[in-house]
Design goal:
230 residues, alpha/beta, Arc Repressor Mutant, subunit A, 2 domains, 5-stranded parallel beta sheet, 4-stranded antiparallel beta sheet, WH-like_DNA-bd_sf
């Protein structure tokens, strides 16, 4: 059963949302300020964290920044509707996705399942045990680890899945829309920069030599171009 941690100071929303998510088959724990939420995330393992931006004691960004120093649990930020700064900043800090308030409960469940489904897939014992490698970049699906020139690189779950898509098709252009649908489980809305931000974070982590392994194809998407793909 998928374990969720909901961190939001709106107790009425937490009660309603917690009841709904429980009915959908999730186990839900709740905290109503940033410090308690951070402590809970460090104390116990969760499959996914729902994190509000506006929180007492520590705001959502402070919680996320502290989490990402040690914990790669997927995080969906709950942001104010229309606040692009919050969304972009959250993604820069390592959030996996965001959903603006007020939100449709069914859409939230779809986002949660899209993220947790990726993790469950990679944990299947039937998956290949050999690393997937192109050039200097390699990944191990079972352990969800990434290395560059043999050195471990820490990536978030969303970054891992984007890289997985690119590694499977080196030299082929993959559109932003395809990445969003396959990784986030949703189509990109107009002016949605979430995939751009995830790729930007990933490129910084994968830098090996002068040429960046992930190239932008303007107006279309991204392509993995690491030397000889043979």
């Amino acid at each position: 059963m998928v374990k969720l941690l909901l961190i939001d100071d709106d107790t009425d929303l937490c009660e309603l949302l917690g009841e709904y998510l429980t009915q959908q088959g999730f186990t839900v724990s709740m905290c109503h300020n940033g410090q308690d939420g951070l402590d809970a995330a460090k104390r116990e393992a969760y499959d996914l964290i729902l994190l509000d931006v506006m929180l007492p004691k520590l705001d959502g960004f402070e919680v996320l920044k502290a989490l990402r120093q040690h914990i790669l649990t997927p995080v969906i930020m709950l942001t104010a509707k229309g606040d692009d700064f919050d969304r972009i900043f959250g993604l820069e800090l390592g959030a996996d996705d965001y959903i603006p308030k007020p939100f449709n409960h069914r859409e939230l469940v779809a986002r949660i399942r899209a993220i947790t489904r990726r993790i469950e897939f990679c944990q299947q014992p039937t998956l290949q045990t050999q690393p997937l490698q192109v050039g200097a970049v390699a990944m191990e699906l079972m352990t969800r680890t990434v290395t560059v020139n043999g050195k471990a690189v820490v990536v978030t779950g969303t970054e891992f899945e984007i890289l997985h898509l690119l590694l499977q098709k080196p030299g082929q252009i993959i559109s932003k829309q395809d990445i969003s649908v396959q990784v986030l489980g949703r189509r990109l809305a107009p002016f949605d920069r979430s995939i751009d931000m995830h790729v930007s974070n990933l490129r910084k982590k994968l830098q090996c030599g002068e040429a960046n392994p992930i190239q932008t194809v303007r107006g279309i998407g991204y392509v993995l171009t690491i030397g000889d793909h043979a």
